[in-house]
Amino acid sequence: MSLRPPAAIRRPSSNVDGISHELSRVSSDIGRNEQLDSHGQVLLSNEWDKKEGWPVVAAGSATFFVYLGLVYSYGIVQLHLADAHLASASTLSFIGSLGAAMSPLMGMIVARIIKRIGYRFTAFIGSIFLGLGEFTAGWSTQSVPAMFATQGLLFGIGAAMLFLPAATVPSLWFKKKRGLATGLVYGGAGLGSAVIAISLEELISVTGLEGALKILGGMAWGICIPASYFLKAPSGSARAVSSIQW
């Protein structure tokens, strides 16, 4: 009578050993040429740092040039509104603060919009709202509620819908040069703040505050609408809109 070892401690068959060895070999081959993202999806190494990403960087930088340039130059607008005795300094400050605060306040909403319609169309709608808020503010300088609706609400909605695409899409195209790409995008904000703030005072002296706001609105449309066309994610679900989570 012979005793057989329990099934639980039997040595695995050679077929199982062969399959395990083959899986290990395939995984090693994949690891040399590909990279897994946080969702377990495979990214080919040659999909990163392509030249097609640089127009996206330029579009993000141009968007930040306008958006943050207008946000940071609102102090000049506020000064002229205060000189016209439209409202108290605190009330006028709140108008500008509302426009600037809409970006973080609407962050989760904008992320859901992007997941539904994509980066490009979200940025396009944001460009319309941003320019519309600035342009219609040119007819609202005699009314505090109208300034809240235009310079505050409309401008803020546009800023919120532009910020997330402009801030995130360029980095999706790069891996080794991601720091450079991000720096160039945010560099547009600093340049816009300086250029718009310096030129706005001269523009107001020539056209008046109302005319200057209308010109700034037209500038926002002229720069941000074309730039929104280039704010698109690279192909592949691993780096596309579906990767946004909150």
From TrEMBL:
Q: Name one Pfam family in it.
A: MFS_1
Bilayer topology: Multi-pass membrane protein
Which superkingdom heads the taxonomic lineage of this protein's source? Eukaryota
Which keywords describe this protein according to UniProt?
Membrane, Transmembrane, Transmembrane helix
Q: Name one GO cellular component term.
A: membrane
Which parts of the chain span the membrane according to its record? 53-74, 94-114, 121-140, 146-167, 179-200, 212-231
Q: Can you say where in the cell this protein is located?
A: Membrane
State the InterPro entries in the record.
MFS, MFS_trans_sf, Proton-linked_MCT
Q: Name one GO molecular function term.
A: transmembrane transporter activity
- Family as reported in the entry's similarity comment: Belongs to the major facilitator superfamily. Monocarboxylate porter (TC 2.A.1.13) family.
Q: Protein name, please?
A: Unnamed protein product
Q: In the record, what lineage is assigned to the organism producing the protein? A: Eukaryota, Fungi, Dikarya, Ascomycota, Pezizomycotina
